[in-house]
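Comment thread on ticket #2218

A.B. wrote:
> Attaching the input chain for the structure job we discussed in standup.
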Amino acid sequence: MNFGVIYAEMMQSKATSLSDFLQYIENKYVLTTSDKTKFEEVLSINGLSSTGMFTLDEDGNALTGD
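C.D. wrote:
> Ran it. Output below, let me know if you need it in another format.
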């Protein structure tokens, strides 16, 4: 999505957190198992989980629970 579409979806979703917005996008656009796999892959590449938590540090290393 381009930034204009992302902005429009953010306003329409009325999300108040990244987690809420990702859930909205997933519910609206992720319709098949293949879509879910691709959605999770895009999030992973960008260092996010589907709950909006960061999964990578500033150097691109995986965060640990330590």
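A.B. wrote:
> Thanks. Noting for the ticket: The chain is about 55% helix and 0% strand.
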